[in-house]
Amino acid sequence: MTEYPDIDFQIIDLNGFIKAVLSIINIKDGTPISTPMSTPMLTVSEMEVLELIKNNQKITRDEIAKQLNVSVNAIKRHIANLKKKEAVKRLGDNRNGYWEIQNKEKND
């Protein structure tokens, strides 16, 4: 940024999610001070689960576990983390419901 030479801004694409990093150079000693201003980071496993959900919003935990060759309990844990990170939301009941990918652009 030419107007503010002591500020560095990066946007990192994480398979449809973004991580923005704003670095400000400490005027006293010249060291960078980084402050992440983004959605929580997703693990590789969480990104794999999210990708399967994007491709099929009605996919079940059992189907995800089978496709990723992991236990259903592992998928339950990944989905719980994705819900906590506000990446997915389950709409409807377990039998007839579907997954919704959450919009990560929030207007705070």
Helix content: 25-40%
Number of helices: 3
Strand content: 25-35%
| CATH fold-type name of the largest domain | Arc Repressor Mutant, subunit A
Q: What's the name of the CATH homologous superfamily of the largest domain?
A: Winged helix-like DNA-binding domain superfamily/Winged helix DNA-binding domain
Cα separation of the termini = 24 Å
Query: Could you tell me the radius of gyration in angstroms?
Result: 18 Å
Instruction: Tell me the total number of β-strands.
Output: 5
Major sheet: arrangement of strands: 1-2-3
Major beta sheet summary? 3 strands, antiparallel
Name the structural class. alpha+beta
Layout of secondary structure:
Elements: E1 7-14, E2 17-25, E3 32-36, H1 44-55, H2 61-68, H3 72-84, E4 88-91, E5 98-101
Antiparallel strand pairs: 1-2, 2-3, 4-5
Helix pairs in contact: 1-3, 2-3
